[in-house]
Predict the structure of Cytosolic protein.
Amino acid sequence: MTLKADLPLHADGVNLTLEELLAYKNQAVHWSTPSKSLWSSMAGQHKSATIGRGMDFNEVRLYQPGDDIRAIDWRVTARTGKPHTKLFSEERERPVMLLLDNSGSMHFGSTLLLKSVQAAHFASLVAWIAAREKDRVGMVVYNGHKLRDCRPTARQEGPLRAMHTMITSHYESLHQTAGKLIMSVAIKQLHYLCPKGSDIVVISDFYALTPSSQSLLSELRKHNQIFFVHVSDPLEQGYTSFQGVENITDDKRTTRVDFSSSKPRHALQHQYNTHIKYLTEYTRKLSIPLYQISASKSLQRHLDQLEPISYGRR
């Protein structure tokens, strides 16, 4: 049973509002600290390979002719008897592009939030963290009916435009029947908008991901870093304490399921495992890290344990 107190601030779990997405601006402060850096754990520090006199300490090595004498590490030099130099890595901006799936299969939730709402919450958190790191933020959202996007923009304008795009798309998709717009169209638009050297975060349940998109993603992967964030619901895995008969719909079909029997739960679990196996192999071929979040609990409750379920091919 889900209590109202379990819901994220300002959220009802179904609709999407500016207030609930703005709340992640304060959460970004928490996750941007070195010990809680969600974005760093996903993307790594936004550092170039250039070694120079920058803000972030990188390593100590033996002094070489031409090194800046101001960078000499006198403690290590005294301890070893040989001159050593501190090296610093220079930070470089990496635009952040978000691809958000807001199609029919994402409008499902059996416990706390619709998957589409949880996806928007995660996108908002990443957008605010990126803005705090002084990276530009852009977005592509598709809902099966319409494609919406905003170009990478700096400062607070980036997250704010992304939130407006998410809210508009979510409202449209809740009030329309399933559309025919496919995910590959959104990936093509992402390819068009994405500056080289971007961090790309794709947030979806990936039921609409087809083999035909592999070539597009492979091309994007050449010049950018891509992350997949899979959004799931416990009922998709057959987990429920409900023992009665209920209708389940995915915007296309409605099925009456008897949860007092183990057969439908096992069938759901098998379908889910098959999908995860497909998605894991898909991301490994493209060397894309795959993360997973659940719509059954708020982000604050499980982001501490956010780990890739697949690291991609090595």
Notes: Residues 262-286 form the longest helix (25 residues). The two ends are 42 Å apart (CA to CA). DSSP finds nine helices and eleven strands in the chain. The first strand starts at residue 47 and ends at 52.
